[in-house]
UniProtKB/TrEMBL annotation:
Gene3D superfamilies: Aspartate Aminotransferase, domain 1, Type I PLP-dependent aspartate aminotransferase-like (Major domain). InterPro entries: Aminotrans_V_dom, PyrdxlP-dep_Trfase, PyrdxlP-dep_Trfase_major, PyrdxlP-dep_Trfase_small. PANTHER family: BLR3095 PROTEIN, CYSTEINE DESULFURASE. Residues 51-373 form the Aminotransferase class V domain. This is Aminotransferase class V-fold PLP-dependent enzyme. The keyword Transferase applies. One of its GO terms (molecular function) is transaminase activity. SUPFAM superfamilies: PLP-dependent transferases (SSF53383). Keywords: Aminotransferase, Pyridoxal phosphate, Transferase. It comes from the Bacteria. The lineage of its organism: Bacteria, Pseudomonadati, Bacteroidota, Cytophagia, Cytophagales. Pfam families: Aminotran_5.
């Protein structure tokens, strides 16, 4: 895979290593967004079919990305919306404990914590090991060991959002099914950059904000819900999710049934004439690139950085349990985080701080020069 920086419009003098915060827009996504905005000048250009057709194309493309049927995909405005939808439709008679990992992203934590309070369930946090040696392996083993017949649901991210720890989703999904536990994942920090298969991993719900690794605009996302959610209750009762929505002249012939599959979970006004074309253009580009190629590119690109970190007293997760597009590293005791961040800012290097970790996140727009500048700055500090 070759560098794809020419497809973006990032300033030449910055080193943007912060895709986990927000992706830059592709030129193609920006252009189609402008075209879609201009289209609204004249409403006669927007036909009733346009409320639905673009959405169906996007659902189909997302299905190709995560290996699911288009009808099991819903269009959502935010990860919190999709996570709350799944949590609100959990059965309450299949276990008394919900599992999360430590420092889970707040949107997932708040949703499952409220569900536990409302339904008198216990919330168990599987903490990251205190030791840094074989940390990822030990954390995965602790998660698997915690799943039992009393487990109602496991809610976690596909990778840890602060440091990129990889979780063995196939084994966790298998263990969940063995004990009739529901498996809910927040894929916001990996889907679009890391291969994932909802069937192979036996995932019940996969929720993704669109503005990070799916390379789309803000305020739109995508969610997969397995068939176990097909009879659930949506967060809102919008007309566009009913079975007769495409018959504009008969909308007041009220019906009880919804669109098939996960159609009931679409956000109201999901046929957004500006955001949908942008999101779809982004997903189509990812499908063309292929997520395995993105991982391979980032792996090769970051090898000099990983070597430098390990040789100079920084901690970074072992290769087997570290995402290649996103990972955190801990500073040696002698280095001040404040001093480092000041130096990074001076050199126009953009990363994030999450917990105690410096969170690094790369993509196809990053170059060897970006990595060299980061290494040089770390060396200066």
């Amino acid at each position: 895979m070759k560098n794809q920086k020419h497809l973006f419009q990032l300033p030449e003098d910055i080193h943007y290593l912060n895709g986990a915060y927000m992706s830059p827009l592709l030129r193609s996504v920006e252009e189609i967004g402008i075209e879609a905005l201009i289209r609204k000048r004249n409403p006669t250009n927007i036909q009733p079919k346009d409320f639905f057709e673009n959405a169906e194309i996007l659902k189909s493309n997302f299905g190709k990305l995560v290996n699911c049927q288009a009808k099991q995909v819903a269009i959502i405005p935010a990860a919190s919306y999709g996570l709350s939808t799944a949590v609100n439709n959990l059965p309450i008679d299949n276990g008394n404990t919900a599992l999360v990992v430590s420092d889970e992203f707040p949107s997932g934590y708040y949703a499952i914590e409220k569900w536990c309070r409302d339904n008198h369930k216990s919330l168990q946090t599987i903490k990251a090991p205190e030791t840094l040696e074989r940390r990822g392996e030990k954390w995965n083993n602790a998660i698997l060991e915690a799943i039992n017949d009393d487990t109602a649901v496991v809610l976690m991210s596909t990778i840890h959002w602060t440091d990129g720890t990889l979780f063995d989703l196939a084994e966790i999904g298998k263990k969940c099914k063995e004990h009739d536990a529901i498996f809910i994942l927040d894929g916001t920090q990996s889907v679009g950059a890391l291969p994932i298969d909802v069937e192979a991993c036996q995932i019940d719900a996969l929720i993704c904000a669109g503005y990070k690794w799916l390379m789309g605009p803000y305020s739109i996302g995508l969610a997969y819900y397995s068939e176990c959610f097909n009879n659930g209750i949506p967060l809102e009762e919008t007309w566009v999710n009913r079975s007769n929505a495409q018959n504009f002249s008969g909308l007041t012939n009220y019906v009880d049934d919804y669109a098939p599959g996960a159609g009931r979970y679409n956000v109201g006004e999901y046929g957004n004439f500006i955001l949908l074309p942008m999101m779809n253009a982004a997903v189509e580009q990812i499908l063309e690139w292929k997520t395995e190629n993105i991982q391979s590119y980032c792996h090769k690109l970051t090898q000099p950085l990983i070597a430098f970190l390990r040789e100079n007293g920084y901690w970074v997760e072992e290769d087997e349990f570290r995402a290649k597009h996103l990972f955190g590293f801990l500073l040696p005791p002698a280095i001040s985080q404040e001093t480092l961040l000041q130096k990074l800012q001076e050199n126009k290097i953009y990363v994030s701080v999450r917990g105690k970790a410096i969170r690094f996140s790369a993509h196809l727009y990053n170059t060897e020069e970006d990595i060299a500048m980061l290494i040089r700055t770390l060396g200066e500090v």
